[in-house]
Amino acid sequence: MNVKSTIQIMNIKKILLGVWIMVICFAVYYLYTHEVTPTVLREYFVELGPWAAIAFIVAYTIRPIVFFPASVMTPLSALLFGPLYGWIFSYIGSTLSATVAFFVAKYFGKDLFSKQKDSIQNPNTFTQFIVRYKETLEKNGLETVLFLRLVPLFPFDFVNYACGLSTIKYRTYLIGTLVGIIPGLTAFIFLGGSITNPRLLIPTVIAFAGLTYGAKLLKKKRRDLATE
Length: 228
Hints:
The protein has helices spanning 3-33, 38-47, 52-62, 70-109, 126-139, 141-150, 156-165, 170-196, 201-227. By secondary structure, it is mainly alpha-helical.
């Protein structure tokens, strides 16, 4: 690739990055000036009739571009489609949105931290935090993705973008995501379903309790392995 082509690619990236920033700014402005609640969103999707499921999956897929929380979309799916179909549509949407965020980060952040490792002086800086997880992902990709998905330490999209900044293979990332999101997704589906069906409160509590207990076990196991 010659210098001219490289410059053109860099210019295209800058333009697309500018567009992305404007989209985020507009989304933030819209959220602050309009009432965007689960009830409002539910009414919007209901009005779409038979297209509601497709529209929901598309909305879930592009959600990370404007950082709209997945913790809102997942319970919403249970309200719209019921626990079973809500789980299925959320699972598809979660996987697609994780893929979108991964490749967006890969496109804009390629080699972002590759030359910064030796220049980091403060061990508490955010950059070193990212670099540390970047190295962990590259050494133990599948295990780390599973851990980050199963243990609710970081927001869903933070994990997506952080993985995109690393050199982890998409296949490894995808497998870890497909398996790792199941417990948390199920818990949030029960939470959404319990709004209209109080009988789901019991499995909701059990699901979140199990997720919390499993997270503690995983954290303890990682600490034990680190001290060996």
